[in-house]
Amino acid sequence: MLMKTSKGKKIKKGLAQNSIDYIVFSNPEPVRKIIYDCGYEAPKSLHTLVRATKELIKKEGKSIITELLKIHPDKKAILALNPKEKKKPCNSCSNDSYNSEDNFCGACGHSNYNGSGDEDSFLDQFSDASDKEVKSYYDRIVKKSNANPEDQKLASEVQMVWNEVRQRKLTDKEKTPTISAPTNPTPQKASMLGKDELVLLGLVFIAGYLVGTTTVKGQLAT
What we know:
By secondary structure, the chain is mainly alpha-helical. The chain has 9 helices and 4 strands. The chain has helices at residues 19-26, 28-37, 46-60, 62-70, 75-81, 119-123, 131-147, 152-175, 195-221, and strands spanning 2-4, 10-12, 98-99, 104-105. A hairpin with a 5-residue loop joins strand 1 (2-4) and strand 2. Mean pLDDT is 75; it is low at 1-17.
């Protein structure tokens, strides 16, 4: 008894026991080419071809499975059911290298906050970053959070980075030395005279001058 495959090819019912059988029975010629390219003679019998393919997988391993998947008759349908997740822009370097599944950027190594209580390890990433770099990172994720208000993990990350920025500002303020107002030096008594002393000195000078003038005039008169 014969039945049709999804591509209209005819195979014998009962032969397709698993994925390898299905691939071989659906596309025998590409399978024969894989075996031939590996340096082996490809059998003409489908049953023997299945056994030879499985034996080749045991010898060569994953590389043969990869080649077989490329000629899978339902390849497009399988890929449609399992779309590969596209990489997203990294919050740190903005390159399209961030992988959500691994929580890791392939370009700069940055990891986002994943909300699992790893606050310390997340903030450790900024230990060598300058204040300007942390502030720049904060500005980027604020914009991203505003565009994705439903993302609670991102909202938590925004709050954590803001606390880091604020703490750095407080620390810098504490480290800034306080400049006190200059104090006037104590005037030396020997080199400076107060207002009262100057007035008294002037009076003494004038009195002495008058006394001296009167004495001179008296002497001239006699």
